[in-house]
Amino acid sequence: MSESDLENIISFNRYPNYIALLPLILYLPIGLALCIVRIFIFLHVCLLSYILPAKFPYKSLILRVMLCVTGLPISSQGLVHTDSKKKIIIANHISSLDPFILSLLHPTVLAIENVKTSGHLQQSLNIYFPLPSDKSHAEVIKTLRDKIEESNDSLLFFPEQIKTNGKSSLLKFSLLPFEVDFPIQPVTIQAHRYLFDINVSTYASSFYEDLIWCLLLPVTCFSIKYLPVTNNKPDENVADFASRVQSNMAKSLNLRASSFSYYDVTDYTKKKQVTERFTEPAPRIVKNVSEPLLPKPVVKEDEELKRLVQQVKDVLPDTPTHVILIDLKKTRDVDLTITNILEGRVDVSKPEEKNSNTKTENLSFKAGKFESQASARQLSFAERKQAMLEAARIQYRIKHGL
């Protein structure tokens, strides 16, 4: 199997394409009203699940009937084997609702939190037995064995350790539930939706996201199937035992037994996120090739700048408006802007215009020396200003043939 097969095992999006959303948009007003009503019913389901004792004979039936009203009917196939109460239940993992649904069918089951799908609501229902994270692997196995020995509770594992779409393959199983050395009760879970092509869950979705989508859409059917209890053969190691159970469950689901594990999927999703981040197209900036984009002037300064630009235009009519505007925003002075343009400090040339033969091309209006007297400096500036104005008039006459 190649990495491309992982795309068929994991659902990264809730819907396959935008066309699938068209029926949902038409249904949305009805779905929202239905969702609000169903939320209150679901809260009553959670309340009853918490209040009713685990040994109450009709607890599972009552909760399943109430879930049907919320659009979550649960059908079961096969019988739970009661000949061996001290056993481990393993199931494939297709949504964040799986632990909650299985806890309704088996009120005494404690789900092992080896997948990050639990929410505050599920934890409040006391359906989780957390694995100790500060102990070694051998100590964890001993803790699990002691838990099974001291109570009649079965332990629920999701050996895939991550949610799949349940349409292509089963991921390679974790060996932890098989190392506890207790009989294994395999359980398969399938989910079907009608009228809408919306996935039951996604790779990163939470319990609340999956729940809201189930309450919003008309019906989401969960099918539970119990397979025969499986024991480890005398000449069979743990890895072969896990592989055999995986193959049996995959065959029951009409899926393939994949060689990919939880760690392969995690690595693939990280690479996918990095690739998407670096291949995201940059926003297109459309520029006018004939004239660069101008910064938007402030409203209060708009009229004043227009007046100054017009004064410069009266003297230098051939200078582009945007060049004058940019320099005026720096200088705020008409005479200084004219000086900058005539002395070449501002680039006003265009590719198609080369006035190399004009008489004023090589004129320089710089002062020969810095005068010590202020009156002399003022006189020098006045002379250069008059010379610049005269040069501009000459350029204008030459250009227009006057």
Automatic annotation (TrEMBL):
GO terms for molecular function: acyltransferase activity; ubiquitin binding. SMART domains: CUE, PlsC. Its main location: membrane. One of its GO terms (biological process) is ERAD pathway. It is found in: Membrane. The chain crosses the membrane at residues 20-49. One of its GO terms (cellular component) is membrane. Keywords: Acyltransferase, Lipid metabolism, Membrane, Transferase, Transmembrane, Transmembrane helix. Residues 304-346 form the CUE domain. Belongs to the 1-acyl-sn-glycerol-3-phosphate acyltransferase family. This is Ancient ubiquitous protein 1.
